[in-house]
Amino acid sequence: MFAASLLRLVIGLAGMVGTAGADPIAPARAAESETRLVAWTGPAPAGIALDSTTGGRVALDDLRGRPVVLHFFATWCDPCRAELPLLAAFADGRDDLITIAVDVGEVDGRVTRFADQVGWRRPVALDRDRAVARAFGVTALPTTIVLDATSTPRLIAEGDLDWRDPTITAPLVALATTTPDGRTPACTDATC
Predict the structure, then answer these.
(1) Does the reported pTM lie above 0.70?
(2) I need a surface site. Which of 24, 84, 99, 178 has the fewest CB within 10 A?
(3) DSSP string spanning 142-181?
(4) Which residue range forms the structural domain that includes residue 162?
C-alpha cells in the first residue's frame, strides 16, 4: 500500500514538472504579486526634516528642483536587506534623482554599520521616533515614496522593488527627465 501511494506521488510530481511552464495563468499571477509603484493618494506632509548618519540634517523642502526617492527601511527587515543594494546601484547611475534611505526607529550605529555592509555610500536619514513614517502613512517596510521636483508625493510602493527592472524605474525616470526649457515635467513653479 505504501509503495503504491509513493508511486502515485512520484508520477504526480513528474507530471507537474512536465507542465509547470504550460500554465497560461502563471505569468499573470506572478505579475500580480510583484510590487509596483502606484499613484500616491494620501496627503502631503509638510516640514519634513531628519538627522542623518553624517551628522547633518535632511530637509525635504531644501531638495526642491529634482525628484526625490524616499526609501523607508529597517536593518532587521529581510526584504529591505536584499533591496537596498539594488536601490544603491540604481541611485549610483542617476544624478537627476535624489535618493534618500530612511531608517525607521533604530540606533544610529547599527544603521551606519548596515549601510556600510550593503554598499550604501550616501547618508541615511534617521527617523528615530517614526514620526516621518507616520506622517507619510508608512505601515510596511520597505516602503518607497517618490516626490516630484516640487516635493509633492507622486508614487508609492509598499514592499520591495527590483530596481534593475526598467518597468519599475520608468516612472522615476519620467519624473526626472528635463524638458527643453530645463524643467522637469512635474515642476511648474519658479523654484525648479
Answers:
(1) yes
(2) 24
(3) SEEEEE-TTS-EEEEEES---TT-HHHHHHHHHHHPPPTT
(4) 35-176
